[in-house]
Structures are given as C-alpha cells and as structure tokens.
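look at this:
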Amino acid sequence: MAFEPKFTITKKIHNALLEIERARGFIDGINLRDDLIDKMRSQALILEAHHSTHIEGTELTLEQAQLILTGEQVDNVRPDDRQELLNYKEAMDFIADYLDKKTEITEGLIKNVHHILVKEVRGGILEPGQYRTVQNYVVNTATREIIYTPPDPEKVPGLMKEFVKWLNNIGDVSPVLAAGIAQHKFVDIHPFIDGNGRTARVLCTLVLYLNGYDFKRLFSLSEFYDTNRPGYYRAIQSVRQEDMDLTLWLEYFIDGLKVQMLEVKDRGEATIKKEIIIEKAKKAGLNERQEMILKYIIENKKASVDDIRQELDIVRRTVQRDFVVLVNAGLAREVATSKTDPTRYYELL
C-alpha cells in the first residue's frame, strides 16, 4: 500500500511556514565574510551533533562535545559517547555533500547514513546499514519506559520501499512539511536495530537540503528537541493517538524549525551589526583600551563606568573619557536610566 501522509495545514502551520520563508530569504541573502559563516556553521554543527546524540542517551556536556569535535583530548568520557558524537558529525558532513546535487533519496543512501552513525559503537553489534531482522522497541531514554512497538521486521523492507518512493515524489507538499513527515515516518518504521532517532533527524535534514532549504547549514533542530524532551516524545506519540494524523506533530516540528530560523536570523543581524561597528572603530582610530571597551559592550550589550573599571582595572576618569570618544565616534550612546537606577550605561549605537 502506498504511503499517503494524513495531516491538515492549520493556521499555526501556515503562519510558521510564512515566518520560515521570511527568515530563509534573510539567511540566503545574508552578506557575511566566509570566515564568519564558517564559524557560525561550525557552532551549529556542534550543537546539532551534541543535542541529537544527547537525546539518545549520551552523557557528554556541550563543552565536552565542543572540545571533542574540535580535536581536543577529553578524559573520563564513555568511548561510545565519544564515537557516537564523532559519527554524527561525519553523517552531517556526508549529507552536506548532497547540497548541490539533484539526486533521489535511495534506501542505499539511508543505509549509508545509518552505517556512519552506528559504526564502531557498542562492539559493532548494531548491524550498521542493515535492516533489522528482530523486533525492537522505542524507549524513553530518561524513564526507560517502552513507548512504542514498531512493525514486525518482515514488514520493514516493504514499508521502506513505499516510504522512499514517496520521498522522491512529494507532490505539492511543502518541502519543510515533507521533512517533518519523513522524520516521523522513519521513526514509525524504525527499520534498524538502533540509531533510528539519529538517522531520522539526519534524513530530515537531508530532505531540507535537497529541496533548497539548507539555511546555509546554520541551524540545529535537535537543540529544540533536546531542550524539552518530554514535549518531543509527546509530539511523536500524538500521531498514533490521533489515528496516524500527523497534524499535531507537524505543528510541533514546524514551530521548532521556526524558532531555530528566527534565532539564526537574530544571530545574523547581530553579526552584521558587529561587523559595521568594527569597521567604524577602525576608521575612528581607537586605541587598544578603547577597542577593549567596545568589545566589552558588544559582548555584554551594555556597560557602565564601574563595569569597565573592574574589567580593565583602570581609573574612573580614564573610562569616562573613553566613553566620550566612543560616543563622539558614533559607536555608542548613553542609555536612558530610570529613577530607581541612576547608573549611566552605554550601549552600541
């Protein structure tokens, strides 16, 4: 039987799609130096790899994940946790190669992604890239509660064949919604012994990439899921509770992507503003101390004379003069203060 997803485009979904498209337009048109885009992209990849594997039970902190993914040695971590993290990064790099390719998604491609994700993990017992031949279960990693029993293993090949056929013929379904549908359907089939959640999230990203929604690879959808795992599980389970209607899941999915896109847009705008300020600072001929004060304001949104005195260990009069220089150069302004807070603050102009 052909796979035909059932859902309704609610007002919430419609409005979120519009916001995503607006953010997409901004992100596609963003004009930043390559090194800044690379830095933002690297951070997004670290967040995605950390949070996606964390959902599945790894115990690494974000700081540990960042160190591992930048090639640093981190002691006292579980070998499998380290390997799963590195595997996820490799899988994301693998699908990034398909950004500019007009290719179909095949079962072989999905199996390759799974192979990358689970290789050298748990003694190699997870059968990388091979559909399961035994029954498995979906377990809440926090409570160890069985929340779903997937289809019988003998049904997996047929279900995957129909699913992949649909992936390559989504018709008039929005590519963004198709990505959300793909993520849930894959989890529902659960074709591999383990690693299905990670594979589903990578597959979701691949669907976005192949349909022109890569957002310059500056987002991490798994960060949204990991922040509220109970909500993530409830959204997935809602489909089965609603007779396989995907609407509630898609509302959750689309809201998560919208949140991520708006965050990327905000970071992009902040980075552009910072670059403009830095260029103005160069033309203003600031001394090293004044550049440090400006950097403090950029990083902390605002600064008072006492803030800078404590940060740089310099006298009040010098700080006051430096603030005057920044104001006269058009780099900062004094913030209006309330009667309850007489402190004079300065922020970027």
